[in-house]
Specification:
Layout (H helix, E strand, L loop, with lengths): L4 E3 L2 E4 L4 E6 L7 E7 L6 E7 L5 E3 L7 E6 L4 E6 L8 E8 L7 E2 L3 E6 L1
Parallel strand pairs: 2-11
Antiparallel strand pairs: 1-3, 3-8, 4-5, 4-9, 5-6, 7-8, 9-10, 9-11
Length: 116
């Protein structure tokens, strides 16, 4: 499997935008997702997309502000994050599953820091 590699994290002010990118071949991958880890809290699945059909789903905390998308020819996964808030600060991970019951494969993560 092609490894998952995130990019695009960084710092922004509240109300700003960032776009995360991940090299993520859809070959043998059933589901792609973006997770967020805040110290002291459980890792949260903020958005996911089924590679076949493109159906998406979002956590309530990001619904209406974040958009997950895939560029199939380029083997890329994106997370467009708008109207960012300090609560969005955390480590963001690109992840993939080969099947419904499979374990998640993880990227190395990219840090997002939002200041008020």
């Amino acid at each position: 499997q092609v490894p998952l590699v995130e990019s695009g994290g960084g710092s922004a002010q509240a109300g700003g935008s960032l776009r995360l990118s991940c090299t993520a071949s859809r070959a043998n991958r059933y589901l792609l997702g973006w997770w967020r880890q805040v110290p002291g809290l459980q890792r949260e699945l903020v958005a996911h997309i089924y590679t076949s059909g493109g159906t998406t789903s979002y956590a309530d905390s990001v619904k209406g502000r974040f958009t997950i998308s895939q560029d199939i020819p380029k083997n890329m996964l994106y997370l467009q994050m708008n109207n960012l808030q300090p609560k969005d600060t955390g480590m963001y991970y690109c992840a993939a599953k080969q099947g419904l019951a499979a374990a998640w494969d993880w990227g190395q993560g990219t840090q997002v820091t939002i200041s008020s």
